[in-house]
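Sample intake sheet
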Amino acid sequence: MRLQEAQEARIYLPDDDPAALQRILSYLYTTGYDDEDQVDDLKENSLSDPMTLDSEAGNAQAEESSARQPLERIERAKSNISALTNNVLVYALAEKYDIQPLKDLAKEKFELRSATPWEDDDLVAVTELVHNVTPATDRGLRDLTVRHCSEHIDRSDGRFLQSSKLEELCTKDGALAFNVLKRHHARKAKLEIQMHDLEWQ
């Protein structure tokens, strides 16, 4: 294989995600990478020139735009989860190839993306991916997902604990379950201290 690589001037990395590798190459050349998936730009060639629309057509377009808004929100949420996944895979490969500045960048991008509200299943899926592709000794993204799980328990009024997918993940990964429990307990204790201090002010 090494002889073949030398002859073809190529390096074969069959176990690595091609898109993540492309992002690593982008980082090596530009010190940055795009964490969004590349998709074709939406074309609206079917829409008439706004200057020629009469009032009836304008109203119809407004109604269509209003109807699209929920779908657009769903698409943005999907895009955000896809970007989170991309950052996890880049982080994992940066760890594998010992590129610490890229790990730091991937973590920063992940943290920015993860600041938006979570859906239960999305949080479980991203948490599982992080714990599958990073070593147990690397707490970078693991601690972030543990924190998000802990916070999401409160934000969902406990509904998150009823998630069958969360139960399945925690059953498979006892260390993750313990870390979430420990983080949640520490967070509750901190809030109780803050509330007690406010009462005495």
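Comment: The chain has eight helices and no strands. Confidence is low (pLDDT under 50) at residues 1-9, 40-54.
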